[in-house]
Task: structure prediction
Amino acid sequence: MGLHRWCQVTLVIVCLFSSSLVEGLKTYSDRNSLDSFLRMQANEEIKNPKTGVLYNVSLPSNLTGMEVSVVRLRSFSLWSRGMNYSFFNLPPRIMSRPSQKRIAILYENLGNFSSYYYNVPNHTMVAPVFGVMAYSSSDSAFVDEKINFTIHGDPIKIWFPLADERGRNHTPLCAKFTDNGLVKFKNMTKPYVCEVHRQGHYTLVIPSSPFPDELHTHSHGRRLTTWWVLGFAIGFIGLVVLGLILLALVMEVKKRKIRQMEKNSAGEELFDTFWIGETKLPLASSIRTQPILEN
Ligand SMILES: *[C@@H]1O[C@H](CO)[C@@H](O)[C@H](O)[C@H]1NC(C)=O
Ligand SMILES: *[C@@H]1O[C@H](CO)[C@@H](O)[C@H](O)[C@H]1NC(C)=O
Ligand SMILES: *[C@@H]1O[C@H](CO)[C@@H](O)[C@H](O)[C@H]1NC(C)=O
Ligand SMILES: *[C@@H]1O[C@H](CO)[C@@H](O)[C@H](O)[C@H]1NC(C)=O
Ligand SMILES: *[C@@H]1O[C@H](CO)[C@@H](O)[C@H](O)[C@H]1NC(C)=O
Ligand SMILES: *[C@@H]1O[C@H](CO)[C@@H](O)[C@H](O)[C@H]1NC(C)=O
Ligand SMILES: *[C@@H]1O[C@H](CO)[C@@H](O)[C@H](O)[C@H]1NC(C)=O
Result:
């Protein structure tokens, strides 16, 4: 059963190849997968978290420069006291929807990875991207499901450090990255302070002049490589399938040749034959048994 074996081996190779490909694409290469990666990392790195204690989440070496911290709060504590941490000021009277007993808040400073994950068309980011993300929290999962903040008092304030000198010469705008991939703009309320009404990711931008937008081409390039990888994979699988079909054809022809030789040795030439290269193929004769018309 040579052909059978062959098919099995090829199938295994194809499976291994495509699963490693899927593995390769299942990384934190885009915003959403970064979000779920950070959530998973927080859950894995922090054992037995205490409520009200802020923890730094350690990140893999290729995310050096990004800073992520997480805290679990009782909803009532957030509602009554709010929470100040680093560049973020969460005032009192913030609730969650759906309503939760305890909330996990992830503070993210994307640092020099800001332009890797985020870009604002026709604008230049002059500050890092900051994220303040809300999750439910339980005993089984420290950082559980994404939830929404609802704000009944003052808005959340984010203080931005300038990362780009150009932000000093122009008045930057607050930019909010929405869930559907769009960007919304708002004026700052104080120098380099943005007031926001939701959890999410924010930064400061200035309109970019005719300068080529390098951030844009960067993400474009990454999209292009993804397409290249996909195209290559599909091409590869197609080639393997083609190879299998060819192999099956060759086997079939060989089988027929053997049958033919057996018949030949038995002295019964039933079909005419013709040759392709070294392969002898049977050719059904058009005048094998003439039907006899009866009157
Ligand atoms: C970091 O490395 C992991 C594999 O260890 C990879 O999946 C991920 O895409 C890399 N991230 C960046 C930003 O290079
Ligand atoms: C967390 O990281 C920040 C910045 O790297 C550092 O200032 C702070 O001391 C760290 N906090 C803890 C609890 O390790
Ligand atoms: C960010 O900076 C760190 C060092 O501070 C470096 O190791 C890392 O490669 C940088 N990442 C990017 C995307 O530039
Ligand atoms: C947070 O900071 C604001 C002013 O920056 C202050 O009024 C408020 O009391 C602080 N809240 C907490 C919980 O520390
Ligand atoms: C960016 O600017 C170009 C030319 O000024 C314009 O055609 C394009 O629509 C703009 N893009 C966005 C997303 O506003
Ligand atoms: C949070 O709000 C957004 C938009 O307002 C909505 O699409 C989403 O379903 C909400 N999420 C939860 C968990 O309620
Ligand atoms: C910001 O404020 C200026 C006036 O100071 C106004 O013209 C502009 O429309 C505002 N921009 C946004 C995005 O609210």
The chain has six helices and 16 strands. Residues 212-283 form one domain.
